[in-house]
Amino acid sequence: MTRKLRSKAPARTTYRHGDLRRALLEAGIALARAGGPDAVVLREATRRAGVVPNAAYRHFASRQDLLEAVRSAALSELAKTMEAEIALVGRGKSGEAGARANLRAVGAGYLRFALTETGLFRTAFATPEFRGFTGDPARAGDSGLGPFELLSAALDQMAQAGSLPAERRPGAEFLAWSAVHGFAMLVIDGPLHTVSRGDIHAIGERVIAMVEKGL
Amino acid sequence: MTRKLRSKAPARTTYRHGDLRRALLEAGIALARAGGPDAVVLREATRRAGVVPNAAYRHFASRQDLLEAVRSAALSELAKTMEAEIALVGRGKSGEAGARANLRAVGAGYLRFALTETGLFRTAFATPEFRGFTGDPARAGDSGLGPFELLSAALDQMAQAGSLPAERRPGAEFLAWSAVHGFAMLVIDGPLHTVSRGDIHAIGERVIAMVEKGL
DNA sequence: TAGCGTATGTGGACGGTGTATACATCGTAT
DNA sequence: ATACGATGTATACACCGTCCACATACGCTA
User: Which residues of chain B make contact with A209, given a CB cutoff of 8 A?
Assistant: First the structure.
């Protein structure tokens, strides 16, 4: 009796989930997809995994930590969507026309993801201590590149094709990114909700045109 | 005894706060200023107002309702900051140079607010059912105009001055707004956190230049 | 001036959340 | 076979938003 002796119930449940970490992550992704970052609540994720709340703490240090993992996944999905759009345009085409098409594809993919997977998109930018839009494999698409790097590559291509003066190349990704990101945010956050879905698309085109011309 | 008879304690506190609604709103604003939308928690606001949690429900239907009021105030502060920046540049100046200066002031004010009052800025765009960037006096600055309308006015001025072709005027505010808003978001949400504060300012300038040229 | 109705604040409770601490169970290496 | 570390459970706490019944005080009418 020197040992602790305060048992209660036998607990005949499964134990050993198999891959709980993955299950929790996927539950978290599903929650984020449906309701954005605030919707990824730890207890609900464990519930969906068929496990008691605290079990999560064996795999994630905190809710914030889980959310971070979900965000990584969201970032990766964003990159994949962008890659898909690029592929659709025909990746190999070089020359000025190809470079422009590529840049447009990057922007279009970004916007498509924001409008289609709003919850994940919001989650991808959920604030606390960001860090990481780059080549971290966890947050990259199939090509191994993250969203930011896909954009960078598109701009490099434009510079090589001569559509973008070399002296304006450095930092240009921030400008382009700002425009597209801002448009996406304004649409999903409401300010442009009065505008019809069709017009949204048209304005999106103009945003990208502004970038091409204004860089 | 037909009446309810289940009293408990005399309760000798103040009662009749004076203007609780205002106190709660201001507490909410302070919380949002310090920590963004998630930080405006109802119980804390009532605590700061020196009142029991439920008292809030006499003035706000829910936490969401309080948050909405705070957002209105944040929007109004944004408009004020923009107005201040416009005034600084010298409002009256017309002509092409004046129009450009005005547009720049609008953008600069927007960015200043985003970087200075990050919590309020985030709160101003806290999602659920947006609606209202326009002339609602509650969310306008001293001039009675909201942020969106200040931008619109600046673009009108540019069109009149001939710096912006008339056929490109319609919808131009969405393009300009997107660029500036996106830049602000990227800065405060982290992706550009690696960039130094000084460079941020420089890039902000380039964003506005891109807008001027790309519209 | 007395009384009363209503606006405003209080008290207590409920279900939900994140998380800490102690315990039970299981796979595995010795 | 056994001891141990990894994984899941049980229990508990503080905090949150919100519902309900009740207490109090202000301002109107009589």
Answer: 214
Contact between residue B142 and residue B190 where contact means Cβ atoms under 8 Å apart: no
Q: Quick check: B181 and A185 CB within 8 A? A: yes
The confidence score (pLDDT) of residue A92 equals: 59
Judge whether B32 and B74 are in contact, CB under 8 Å.
Answer: yes
Shortest Cα distance from A132 to chain B (angstroms)?
7
Q: Which of B125, B182, B215 sits opposite A178 (nearest CB)?
A: B182
What ipTM was reported for this prediction?
0.89
Write out which nucleotides of chain C lie closer than 7 A to a protein Cβ.
7-13, 16-27
Give the residue ranges of chain B where pLDDT is below 50: 1-13
Provide the pLDDT for residue B10: 34
Overall residue count recorded for chain B in this entry: 215
Which residues in chain B are closer than 8 Å to A210, comparing Cβ atoms?
A: 175, 179, 210-211, 214-215
Would you tell me how many other CB atoms lie within 10 Å of the CB of residue A194? 11
Architecture of domain B75-214: Orthogonal Bundle (1.10)
Helix, strand and coil percent figures for chain A, each rounded to 5: 65, 0, 35
User: A168-177: per-residue pLDDT in tens?
Assistant: 999 999 999 9
Determine contact: A209 vs chain B, CB below 8 A.
yes
Q: In angstroms, what CA-CA distances link B1 with A122, A145, B4, B5, B6? A: 58, 77, 7, 7, 11
The predicted structure's pLDDT at residue A214: 95
Q: Which residues of B touch A207 (CB under 8 A)?
A: 174-175, 178-179
pLDDT (0 to 100) of residue A127: 80
**Spatial contact of B109 and B180, defined as CB atoms under 8 Å apart:** no
**Residue of chain B with shortest Cα separation from A129:** B190
A15 touches strand C (CB under 7 A): yes
Q: In angstroms, rounded to a whole number, what is the distance separating the alpha carbons of residues B188 and A204?
A: 23
CA A112/CA A130 separation, integer angstroms: 23
Domain ranges, ordered by start, for chain B: 75-214
**Predicted pLDDT of residue B154:** 95
Low-confidence ranges of chain A (pLDDT < 70): 1-15, 91-92, 128-135
Distances (CA, A) of A78 to A17, A29, A64, A70, A99: 30, 13, 21, 12, 21
